[in-house]
Design the sequence.
DNA sequence: ATTTGACATTAACCTAGGTTAATTTCTATG
DNA sequence: CATAGAAATTAACCTAGGTTAATGTCAAAT
């Protein structure tokens, strides 16, 4: 990991984890969570814009995101970048199939971020001793696939306005459960270039499209605050389906 | 499932499974595989163009693909289609996180296909009794994510020629281990419209691009046979990385 | 041997989004 | 509060890929 990473002094015990409901352990009874905590090697805090790991390098940790925003992306030989996913509190990070294989993407913080660190070596042991955790991880991974399929449709078969509408709704709905009170405005740390590299457009065209969405009273994005102005029309425009985006079954 | 599905009479025992090395059970010892087989409810054979399950419907089976080609896709309200992935022998099918939630995509056979069927109810039990299987499933799912990320880059950040080059190489490499002898020609059951719906282009432009690739002596595609004519240049054009595509660690 | 429908091919034309480049805010830092 | 670098905005122009539509080819079915 990068330079300025520091371990926190007061570490949150897993039993008190505020994001537990979102993450790996949501269905585990208290007693089990305490055991799982033994496998955790620590929490660490990273400033914004920190590289967590780089595409092409072997990386030996797994993380759960505790607070903050992280983006996963790939860089092409021609210099362009494709952002794959935004990792939010409770999500998984760097879960690659084989520890010996170098990472196929990079991860970088967008905001200050707290991570819970699990060394990769312990993973098999954890699976053997706690099959419920293994099952839970399987489910989370399956949801990640569902989301990336949604992204494929977004980039492959929608126009610029639809792509942005989808991205905004997706992030809005994933952030909402973490906020103290529900509102139509959220903090939104992406730059217009980040947005462009997420939805397969150019920065200039994202700017044009944002203007068009703003002028039609659908969303307002400025100074890293996103406001959903007309939720129903936005959902319709985006072809948005909550099920495909949330990390939870809807009860 | 659809009408004409039929159960095979002589079912392959899991211990003799020719695709075992590719699938869930690659790292499981013989004895364990025999136990896993108890959870399998059968094998079935489907003709080409059969719908296995449909987006929006609850579906209660999991499958391993034994032989044949299956495509996963989503249909948009405007009628367009995005193909998400081609499922080949040894791959997983319909692994969705929650059994109560309707499928978020559809699956259809491209060729005659043999599936191994596992009822979803048994899944948790299987996980509890055989955590190694859970771990293995997690790894396969993680690889599926890696592949879908590769697709995102392909659609989001490459031009038409690069997209086709990538698709051809990806499928070529995934099919190759299954063929009796290695050659540069493979059977390729996709239509040009399928290709278009996979890489986010139109059928007409796929045709133009195919001509351009053919005229430059890179690939030859006709009558559902694909020939890789200039592998090195194709790899370079596609920005192709084997690691991100294969379901196996490279030894 | 002929029909039919699915698939492939091509051409002519058009537009959504890309490119380039200049200008204007922000925002962090001393 | 001055300044520099990052981010946003806009305009002018251009092209990769989309659209429409006509025609050709192939393979299955009668």
Sequence:
């Amino acid at each position: 990991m990068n330079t300025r990473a520091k371990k926190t002094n007061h570490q949150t015990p897993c039993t008190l984890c505020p994001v537990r409901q979102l993450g790996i352990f949501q269905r585990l009874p208290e007693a089990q969570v305490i055991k799982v905590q033994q496998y955790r090697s620590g929490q660490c805090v990273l400033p914004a814009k920190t590289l967590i790991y780089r595409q092409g390098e072997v990386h030996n940790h797994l993380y759960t995101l505790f607070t903050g925003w992280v983006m996963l992306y790939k860089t092409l030989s021609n210099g362009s970048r494709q952002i794959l996913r935004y990792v939010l509190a409770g999500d998984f990070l760097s879960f690659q199939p084989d520890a010996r294989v170098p990472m196929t993407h990079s991860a970088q913080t967008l905001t200050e971020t707290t991570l819970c660190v699990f060394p990769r070596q312990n993973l098999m042991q954890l699976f053997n001793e706690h099959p419920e955790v293994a099952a839970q991880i399987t489910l989370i991974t399956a949801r990640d696939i569902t989301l990336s399929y949604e992204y494929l449709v977004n980039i492959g078969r929608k126009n610029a306005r639809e792509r942005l509408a989808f991205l905004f709704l997706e992030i809005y709905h994933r952030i909402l459960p973490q906020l103290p009170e529900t509102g139509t405005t959220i903090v939104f740390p992406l730059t217009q270039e980040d947005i462009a590299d997420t939805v397969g457009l150019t920065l200039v065209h994202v700017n044009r499209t944002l203007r068009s969405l703003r002028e039609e009273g659908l969303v307002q994005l400025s100074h890293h605050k996103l406001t959903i102005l007309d939720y129903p029309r936005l959902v319709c425009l985006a072809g948005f389906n909550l099920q495909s985006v949330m990390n939870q079954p809807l009860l």
Observations:
- The longest strand of chain B covers residues 61-67.
- The mean pLDDT of chain B is 84.
- The longest helix of chain B spans residues 131-157.
- Chain B touches chain A through 53 residues (CB under 8 Å).
